[in-house]
Amino acid sequence: MGKPTGFMEFERELPEDRSPSERVQDWHEFHEHFAEAKLQQQGARCMDCGIPFCHAGQLISGMASGCPINNLIPEWNDLVYRGLWKEALARLHKTNNFPEFTGRVCPAPCEGSCVLGLNELPVTIKNIEAAIIDNGFLKGWVTAEPPEKRTGKKVAVIGSGPSGLACAAQLNRAGHLVTVYERADRIGGLLMYGIPNMKLDKQFVERRVDLMAAEGVKFVANAHIGVDMPATQLIHNFDAVVICTGATKARDLPIPGRELKGIHMAMDFLRANTKSLLDSQHKDGNFISAKDKHVIVVGGGDTGTDCVGTSMRHGCKSLTQLEILPRPPDTRQADNPWPEWPKVYKLDYGQEEVAARFGADPRVYLTTGEKFVGDGDGNVKEMHIYEVEWAKNEQGAFIPKRVAGSDKVLKADLVLLAMGFLGPEDAVLSQLGVERDPRSNAKAEHGQFTTNVRGVFAAGDCRRGQSLVVWAINEGRGAARECDRYLMGATGLP
């Protein structure tokens, strides 16, 4: 609970980020860190709230409220306040295999449902979580812990993103022989190539993967299951298979001119940038550069923001971000009560960097594209856009309608499409004969994770659709538990 009167004595504080003008010059993480005394003070704000919604992990109005992996937040806040950092680390690792990831990239639904947030600013949970694990590695408390006994059972995990890694870690802990297959040249999936280095430094991904390898997990990179190897082969070679391939089929923008050069899917842009950065510090030139270009990012989510931040570091000439939805309000509205995730306006790191350089938030709301126009040589030079308003159709569904006279033309040398993802790619699911739900995801009930194919499980975005890293960890842990139950008849995994 922290200090009983802490929430009355101390204001919410966060360490300042590096200045936008400084951080766009490199690819290092942009967050600064608090001294231990400051962190203890923030931990002291955690209340004796009776029912701590922060670790509820429930869905309200389709969004996470509280921590999806049920982190024991009040407990480790109290331990931090009391200076018991090693004990706080042990309590954190009980529920979270990878707090160094969630402490950096999670949007913190726990803070959105913090009881203190009813009438004050919530506890700084995410920042404390990151500090606990970083301190644990610094002090040498995080070490390889191979299982004492092996069961002899073999499990294949397809995909090394957060769900695949969480699943592999838990199955290995149960004593199974786990092999993780990854189609990219580096392990980590979304964590490696989907999230830019300034949000999640890849040394932290590699450090955790190395630790898991030391514990006995086998990783196979450059292994595109369904392409390089038939997925059915895994059925014959392993006692169970867990599909954790993510939802990587991106939503396109099929308007006239889409075929022009200079229009790219966001993940192609982000993936190539990170790979080139890691391979050669961009010296090989094997990436899509935004330098000196008029950039348009279509989509206002996290992926769009990452495209914005990456383009700024390249040195773009201008940047506009299109969002078809309306601008969120500055404060919670009556139809968005606590403990729902607060749907309010925020200036994320990328938009903050644009505002610092160009003078304003780059997002243009209630706007979409009509067509792309080329320069005569097959390169995009313009995007024609118009404003929309959301209105009900005859069936009662809200649809965007064009606002007459709102047409505009934007300069465009580079267009990045970041409009979300439709579902998993087909190869693995089709070859294994896994049934799909109406959204094309693997059909497997949450909590069970079993598909229609005996011994085959599904977890993460390929099952639930595009979601948060913390939900992926939840699902990977859950799939491991049910896979262990299938293999052994019972399970001790949480």
Can you tell me about this structure?
The chain is of the alpha/beta class and 494 residues long. The protein folds into three domains: 6-138, Alpha-helical ferredoxin (Fumarate Reductase Iron-sulfur Protein, Chain B, domain 2), CATH 1.10.1060.10; 154-248 and 422-488, FAD/NAD(P)-binding domain; 252-419, FAD/NAD(P)-binding domain (3-Layer(bba) Sandwich). Helices cover 33% and strands 17% of the residues. The protein has a five-stranded parallel sheet with strand order 5-4-3-6-18, sandwiched between helices. Strands 8-16-9-10-11 form a five-stranded parallel sheet. The model has no long low-confidence stretch (mean pLDDT 96).
Main traits of this protein?
FAD/NAD(P)-binding domain, globular, 18 helices, five-stranded parallel beta sheet, Fumarate Reductase Iron-sulfur Protein, Chain B, domain 2, 494 residues
